[in-house]
Task: structure prediction
Amino acid sequence: MGKDVSAARRQIKSLQQTIREVQHSENMAIFSDHMRKVVNLALKFHKSRDIPVLIEGETGTGKEMIARLVHSGEQDTSAPFVAVNCAAISSQLFESELFGYEQGAFTGAKTMGNIGKLEMAQGGTLFLDEISELPLDLQSKLLRVIQQREYYRVGGTELIPLDVRFIFATNKKLQDLVEKHLFRSDLFYRIDIGKIEIKPLRERKEELLPLTQYFLELFSKKRNKNFRQISSDARFIIQNHKWKGNVRELQNTIERIVLLYDDEVLEGWHLSQITTENVAMKKKQGSLIVPGEMLLPDTPFSMEDLEVEIVAKAIEKFGGNKSKAADYLSLTRSALRSRIKKIDDRIL
Result:
């Protein structure tokens, strides 16, 4: 027991030391060589406002945070940062949203006209997220603006000079879309000059435990909770989960745990909401636990914690229907109630 406690203390001390030494940029914690390279590249591109920047990475990898770093560099700036989600605006409205319009330009237009996102971003940065979703006909108009550095409002005749840094982001490979004729090649080659690729979290496993410790301490301090350490069971789950939602999923998972519980140690049962088994096995079998194919951690774990997690998952599986959950687990209603009480006791 004493050896386990000593090992846990050494681990938490090591993780805390890592956090103290970590590089912070734009409120972003950096725990790997890959992310240090990403940050350094963003800072280099910050120095050249005329170069378009393209950030590629899966959802949740922090593309907007890197975009803001390109925008501001290492110092705060009062220059505007205007973010536009290309997937959230209909193609019919996108042109007027981007370029603005003059009065009477179309039915339903404001009587005084309206400035667009380009004009709002003058002197600063226009961040076009999900650029892969921009319709092809609008891609040609955007290309002209990037090249000519000037534009007209919809329905306008006055040419407006443009002083804007362009940053684009996508969770798709634009090169693949170009080959499939779903994205204009001329626009791609124009915005691919300043390219930043962010690897998914599953390819940056060295970051998992330091990031978890970072978020654990960050949210514990924010909510005045006691979480300080990560148990061996929790470490195993964190290191083997696929994290399809990347850093955002990890951050949200830890924030939810800190919101619901107030313990000193993050245990495996706290992480019951995430899958701990191979995703392919789960899809094939439709179950988290497959007799004869279970994966066990190398370090000791609590059977009681596992039982609580199984019961919680069964109740969730049947939408809170305890009768169906009891039948599924081959338990009597009274036996299920006693196990539910253990879950309630943990929450309290």
